[in-house]
Design goal:
By secondary structure, the protein is mainly α. 76% of the residues lie in helices and 0% in strands. It has helices at residues 3-31, 37-42, 48-57, 64-76, 90-124, 130-143, 147-161, 185-211, 214-221, 226-263, 269-279, 282-310, 312-317. Helix 11 packs antiparallel against helix 12 (282-310). The longest helix has 38 residues, at 226-263. The radius of gyration is 24 Å and the shape is globular.
């Protein structure tokens, strides 16, 4: 087995261990939420006897370690459990919102990567130039505005005042966001403005560090064309830190999507999570939390693998 595959296997094992720890923390956090799920399920007029009966049916009186072990055993068998509110399978409740969020995040991530890489390349290759300072200033300004304010401005101006794009991102009934992609534009732009600025500043710093290295300066002094300097000397050295920056954008997107989905009434995991937290629907909350944590963990592990493969020194040391 090659060193690259060995390293990838190690990172995957690390990801599984991290996800196991996250599952414990997530289960404990949900278990500590205020309120009684059985009482909320039955309403305020339920008798104590009926509440106790439902608690026994849901195994809520079992010790927390027992309930966690039962949950994990079900997960290993591919069963996410049943909603305590509706009794329906959690897989069916989560499937459609998960697809909607995946479409939104992939589109937003692509937009953020494009914005961040272009701005970082323009400003980082020639640090201290007028263009570099302008890009840095604009990125700092964009970072100073939270994404929910950006979303509100876009809704008010582009959606309501100008009427160019939908102010509410309603997915067609029984369909997917790709059936009406125009609803994705404003949510994606809202995430891309702040996320692109954040990524651009960090990647710019990485590109600038590589551009100051002796071999890059030597290539320029020897008359190598600027385009070749960038492709042959700067880009390879900037890949590992850039991969880490892009991984850091994933938790930003996962967290930002919760806010953006609520603002645009987009039926994704963020909206589902907020609704189910208020209903104390633990199985659904835990499933959504695990999906979000899995995306973040896999992103960081993938960035480590990319950085390892792109860095001969790390490969040798490993």
């Amino acid at each position: 087995m090659s060193s690259g595959l060995t390293y990838a296997a190690m990172r995957m094992a690390s990801a599984i261990a991290t996800l196991l720890v996250v599952s414990v923390v997530l289960f404990a956090a949900v278990d500590l939420l205020p309120g009684d799920p059985a009482q909320q399920m039955l309403g305020v007029n339920a008798t104590p006897e009926r509440v106790e009966e439902v608690r026994r049916q849901l195994n809520l009186d079992d010790p927390a370690p027992v309930r966690y072990g039962r949950w994990m055993w079900s997960l290993l068998q591919g069963d996410l459990g049943e909603s305590v509110r509706t009794g329906g399978p959690v897989e069916q409740i989560v499937a459609r919102p998960a697809l909607n969020t995946a479409v939104l995040l992939v589109a937003a991530f692509g937009a953020i990567v494009a914005v961040a890489l272009v701005l970082a390349a323009l400003s980082g290759v020639r640090e201290g130039s007028r263009l570099s300072n302008l890009v840095s200033l604009c990125a700092l300004g964009a970072l100073s505005v939270p994404e929910f304010i950006v979303a509100g401005i876009l809704i008010a101006v582009v959606g309501l005042e100008l009427g160019w794009l939908p102010a509410v991102s309603l997915v067609p009934i029984g369909g997917t966001p790709l059936d009406r992609p125009v609803i994705l534009v404003l949510p994606v732009v809202s995430l891309a403005i702040v996320g692109g600025a954040f990524g651009a500043r960090l990647i710019r710093a990485a590109v600038a560090d590589v551009a100051r290295m002796p071999h890059v300066e030597a290539a320029r002094l020897s008359g190598v064309p600027e385009g070749r300097v960038i492709l042959r000397h700067i880009v390879p050295g900037a890949i590992p830190p850039t991969a880490q920056v892009l991984a850091f954008l994933v938790p930003f997107l996962v967290g930002g999507a919760v806010v953006i989905e609520r603002i645009f009434a987009y039926p994704g995991l963020g909206s589902l999570l907020v609704d189910r937290v208020s209903l104390r629907d633990a199985p659904v909350i835990e499933a959504v939390g695990l999906l979000q944590a899995s995306a973040v963990i896999l992103a960081f592990q993938a960035a480590d693998v990319v950085g390892f493969l792109a860095s001969p020194s790390r490969r040798t040391a490993a």
